[in-house]
Design a protein that fits this description.
By secondary structure, the protein is mainly beta. It folds into two domains: 81 residues; 121 residues, Sandwich (Jelly Rolls). It contains four helices and 18 strands. It is elongated, with a radius of gyration of 19 Å.
Amino acid sequence: MRRVRRLWTPGKTFFVAVMATLLLAIPASQKPEPTLATQASEWRTFTLEDGSIATLGPRTMLTYSFDHDQRRIHLVSGEALFSVKKDPQRPFVVETPVGCAKALGTIFSVSHQLHSTSVTTLEGIVAVGRLDQANPDCVANTIRLHAEQKAVIESWTPLVARAVDTDVELAWTRRQIVFTGQTVEQALREFNRRHWLQLEMPDHPEVLRMRIIGRFSLDDPERFGRYLDDQLQRRNQDP
């Protein structure tokens, strides 16, 4: 049995449990298309057959198929940054279980978690829409994302392009995580979905609602734990 390491210990504390990594794999008989995957705490960069570059964050899986007319990526889960080689004759389409993004040659990221997909454009223009079997090429009912814009695709919200700080949005590509006022609960979920060390949620509602601001290395969970400890101590000292 793997042992549990205590990183943060005020009252009902956070624990870091050394958990078995989940190897994302599909039996060969079920994956006719090439598959790229990463485990927790693993970042990988791949050069695709057309010369485009895909950078995968932790716990990411995608398949891809290229032909003479189109380059298609299916992002099953996780997050990936695509630096797309220009080819006007072959659009580059990334689809997720709920959405799609289409470009001819640009740099953009796609993230899919549960029932939500987000697309962030670093350079160029990307068309973004909901997944529609009648619109597999992602050309109808889309919005256009320009550089430093993001859209979230969910079944219950309208598609809207909004300006974002791409340094914050794409910090994961540099093995970092940036919080700009998220609650402790939100921050822990973001950390845990990327890291093989799992921080346990506290059961105190006030702690869960605390706001976090800061930039942290995903290679240094101890610093993140110390920061949480310091914030709680300061809160307890306030009159």
